[in-house]
Amino acid sequence: MRRESTLLLTTVLALVMIGVIMVYSASAAYASAEERLFRQLLYVALGLAVLFLAIHFDYRRLAQPFLFRFLVLLSLALLVLVLIPGIGVARGGAQRWIEISGFSFQPSEFAKFSLLLLLAVKLSQNREQIKSFTHGYLPCVLIILTFAGLILAERDLGTPVVLCAAGFFMLLLAGAPLRYLVPSIIPAALAVYVLSITSEYRYRRLTAFLDPWSHSDREGYQLIQSMNAFVKGSMWGLGPGGGEQKLFYLPAAHTDFIFAVWGEETGLIGSLFLIGLFVLLLFLSLRIALHAPDLFGTLLASGIASLIVFQAAFNMAVATGLLPTKGLPLPFISHGGTSLIVFMGLMGIVINIGTQATATSRVRPATAH
Amino acid sequence: MAKKRLKEREKRKPPVVRAGKGQSVRIRLVLLLFLLIYAGIAARLIMFQIDPDLRFADEELKHIGEISIQRPRGDIVDRNGRILATDRTVPSLWVDPSEVDDPNAMVHYLMARLGFDEADVYERVTRTKANGDRMRFVWLKQRMTDAEAARLGDINDAPEPEALHIQNEYLRYYPEGELAAQTLGFVNGKGQGEGIEGQYDKYLHSEDGRRVARVDGSKRRNMLGYWTLQYEPPSGGDRVQLTLDSTMQRSLELKLDQALSFSEASRAMGILMDSHTGDILALATRPAFDPNRYMEFEAAARKNRAVMDLFEPGSAFKIVTAAAALELGLLSPDDKIDCMGGRFNPYGRPISDTHILNVAPFSECFAVSSNIAIVKVASLIGPDRLEEWIQRFGFGKRSALGLSGESAGIFRPQEQWSRLSMGSLPMGQEIAVNILQLARAFSVIANGGYLVEPTLVKEIVSSEGDVVFRTQKAERKRILSEETARTMRELCYRVVSHGGTGSLAAIPEYRVGGKTGTAQIAPYNENRYTAVFAGFAPLANPRLTCVIVVHEPMIGRHYGGLVCGPVFKGVMRAALVQLNVTQDPMSAEDWRGVVAGEQGMGELANLVLPLLEPDAFEEDLDGLELIPAQEDKTHAGPRMPDFGGMTKREAKALGVSLGLPWDPQGAGRVLRQEPAAGTLLQEVRLCKLVFSNG
User: What is each CA distance from A331 to A150, A258, A338, in whole angstroms?
Assistant: First the structure.
């Protein structure tokens, strides 16, 4: 499936390039715009290195017990470390970063990779085990909840939601019975709701989401500014760099709300194009998953695709006012090093699976032996 | 071997678990699910375009801001461009109460620096709107003085610096303080002005422009330069250039102040005018006020009395009578007139002379200001022609200056004259004039017979550099023949040089022509006088006319020549030197006449001598050396007099009047002098005198 792999690589690079341009454009109002641009370019360089490393690294070796156990334990350790004051750095009320000599690192982004890897390894060992609630389904759910719980402790609700969703899709794709899966949605949704109304700032965000215009001074402000960007962008947009919302109207323009800047500057056409790129990414990844040499590859590729596309959809839904505000970056586009590098690495894994898949190797019955 | 090993490894490897049919279905399910989600987002995006919420349009209004483009009120400058009135930016302090989280800390900070009342400043930093929200803008201190601004220091040191803001505002500033204060006037807080400020307000006044443009979302709402929606340029603020010369103005004011303190008078006024163009170079009334602090002065002190106050010109008016008689051919300077020993009563009121003469040539009568002679001359002219000539000289009419409050003077038409009028008018009684009118009349004689229009404003230039107003000089009107004017100048010179009343106005390097005047102020029984000296210089080709008027000088020092002469001398000499006018020195013989005239004043002349000290105004000439322009090196100028046998006081008086720096040694009478008598004065650096008791 060389063609799919090549196209997927092209798609990823297109997204990354859009990201570089948009981060620069969205930072135009700040004196540090150039500094941000160079930082983003540095992240891209690191991301490309990881991407090509991953492309040339046989994904099956990730399933080696020693390697994946090491990665999972490292990830969990980091998630615990970031909670310790002095090691973890808090920004904007959330303690998500570990800072090392000027560069900050987000363990929760790395945790996405390790969780997907852990689930893929576990679920691909025995196809039938997942049918059992106590021996298959429940342990997986507990693994997911462990990760989600640790990240939730960082006062971050967006990433746990994305992790749970990615986990849910992994279980779905691995063949977990729908009688387990569907009821699981109810407590999960309930938990998110309870978390939303028990925290004051989340509650305010929720009410502002429901009626931004009555809270236009405060919580609703960001949402209104974001939606206004799309309205002003009209069909063809104000042109790259021509947006106005990023000039101190729209908070977090270069991170969580970068989609609005894109929408204002490239219009409806540009927004649909960007959605198209993510759909293409999903389509190609799932095609690769379908033709993967083994179940591990199938689950890993489809899980990675689900995670990225879900987070992108979530981010876009927030920017367009379809979901309450959660601090989630738009994959490949938003400013942020860890997220970009991890996502590029993940896409490298998918591309690697793609290069090993063959169009003829249709999904075969598991009775190979 | 190799094959075997490979096989063994194959065996050890766990079996490959491949994806099943279930995966195939579920992958398609996931794809479909996401396609639905993205379709939803796309639909939302399309809806934004098809049916946007109308409230977004209101939101757009917040993206439009307006700023005013400030323009200061126009400057007022002197003829050389020196700024007399300008707008200065001064800092004003305001607070944004919505940014104040700790009012007590802020109040403490402000009180320590600006000394506010605690309750008042607390109320300001916590002021709220009607809906309970904190206000965003409250003044703390408008137009801070330099001292206050210095005490405030850097507002970034404040506990909450983001709440405090400095905004620059314009404040009218008069850098020269009292200089020409009544002429310049002032502007009050509402922009209403007096003086030039008021009269030329339509030029000086400025209107701010405005610019409407899209703005960014920051708190400062910075304009987006590329997106201007509306622009109205600022207007007005033109620069008014006066004909005044600040150096001459200062010198005039300084000398008037000295005359005030010497004579204990209530008020002194003066004008220095270009004899040919009518440009007013200096116009002063003392005491004055500081327009920077105009509210601290009474309205009376701010009035431009130089153009408002009327006074009887007294003997200075005699030039009109004399000029008329000369022009009509009724008189020549050498005609003998019987001055009747100082007593004459033609109209039922005795007319007397201070300086008693019998039969004397008119030139002498004029020099000693004989009332009897001038009344006799007037009777030759007759009332019809006298009235006509008084009007010809511009009396009874307002000047074209248009300064508010300027008076036309009092001059009654002939029908209202009394039986006594022909005995009063010729010597400047029964008529009231202002200083401009008198200066104009003397300029007629000075410039060779033309009536000039006094002007104060040279031109007005807009901010864009266009000249929007320029004083148009009307064609000069000849009212006197060249010949008569020259004769009058000679007569006026005798007033100063031949032991006349104007001796104290004499300048060695420049021959001065002038006339003194002393008039009683009604009611006449109170012995209140106005002292006047009016004149011009240099006699050969007069450049400047100057009139000095002192109101109500102390009795005994109230003679025009005594009080006003030294002022005239100081102002005129400095001005001529400044203008680099070539010398027109007095001859030694004439100078003796001056000395004689001074001696005629007796002890009073000694009292006035301190006024003649030149050093008082030298400092103000910014290093300009008071060395008159030399006409010709070989020309015999005034020479060193012989001090031999003089008392110290006499020697000093003579030395100072010649502008000689002197070095006295000992006391008593002069024994030796160095350099010797007869040395050209211009070559004398220092006059060493050795006295008998040394």
Answer: 22, 11, 11
Its ipTM equals: 0.94
Cα gap B375→B426, rounded to integer Å:
6
Flag if B26 and A175 touch (Cβ within 8 Å). yes
List residues bridging with B338 in a β-sheet. Answer: B359
User: What is the pLDDT at residue B628?
Assistant: 53
What pLDDT is recorded for position B70?
85
Cα distances (angstroms) measured from residue B261 to each of A39, B157, B265, B550, B670 = 79, 51, 7, 11, 31
CA dist A145 and B555 (Å) reads 112
- Which of the pair, A266 or A210, is modelled with greater confidence? A266
Spell out which residues of chain B touch residue A317, defining contact as CB-CB under 8 Å: 37, 40-41
Q: Is B515 within 8 Å of B535 (Cβ atoms)?
A: yes
Q: Is A37's pLDDT higher than 90?
A: yes
Q: Is the pLDDT of residue B664 over 90?
A: no
User: Average pLDDT, stretch B86-115?
Assistant: 86
B56 at interface of A, judged by CB pairs closer than 8 A: yes
pLDDT at A114: 94
Instruction: Mean pLDDT check: name the lowest of A96-100, A207-211, B607-611, B674-678.
Output: B607-611
Range A201-212 average pLDDT: 82
Residue A346 contacts B where some CB pair is shorter than 8 Å: no
**Using H for helix, E for strand and C for coil, what is the string for chain A?**
CHHHHHHHHHHHHHHHHHHHHHHHHHCCCCCCHHHHHHHHHHHHHHHHHHHHHHHCCCHHHHHCHHHHHHHHHHHHHHHHHCCCECCEEEECCEEEEEEECCEEECHHHHHHHHHHHHHHHHHHHCCCHHHCHHHHHHHHHHHHHHHHHHHHCCCCCHHHHHHHHHHHHHHHHHCCCHHHHHHHHHHHHHHHHHHHHHCHHHHHHHHHHHCHHHHCCCHHHHHHHHHHHHHHHCCCCCCCCCCCCCCCCCCCCCCCCHHHHHHHHHHHHHHHHHHHHHHHHHHHHHHHHHCCCCHHHHHHHHHHHHHHHHHHHHHHHHHCCCCCCCCCCCCCCCCCHHHHHHHHHHHHHHHHHHHHCCCCCCCCCCCCC
Burial readout B13-33 (b: 16 or more C-beta within 10 A, e: otherwise) = eeeebbbbebbeebbeebbee
| CB within 8 Å: B31 and A286 | yes
Q: A40 with A23: CB under 8 angstroms?
A: yes
CB A304 within 8 A of CB A70: no
Per-residue pLDDT at B683 exceeds 70: no
> In chain B, what are the domains?
67-242 (3.90.1310.10), 246-288+307-606 (3.40.710.10), 648-691 (no CATH)
Give the model confidence (pLDDT) of B490-502 as tens digits: 999 988 887 667 7
- Are A368 and B49 in contact (CB < 8 Å)? no
Averaged pLDDT of chain B = 83
Give CA–CA dist B507/B513, Å, rounded: 10
pLDDT given at position B601? 62
Tell whether B59 lies on the interface with A, counting CB pairs under 8 A. Answer: yes
> Chain A 280-299, CB below 8 Å of chain B: which residues?
282-283, 286, 289-290, 292-296, 298-299
pTM of the model: 0.68
Residue B215 is predicted with a pLDDT of 86
Residues A251-255 have a mean pLDDT of: 86
Decide if pLDDT at B192 tops 90: no
* Chain A residues within 8 A of B38 when measuring between CB atoms: 275, 278-279, 313
Q: How far apart are CA A341 and CA A332, in angstroms?
A: 9
List the one residue out of B208, B219, B105 whose CA is nearest residue B162: B219
* Interchain contact, B27 vs A322, CB within 8 Å: no
pLDDT of amino acid B556: 64
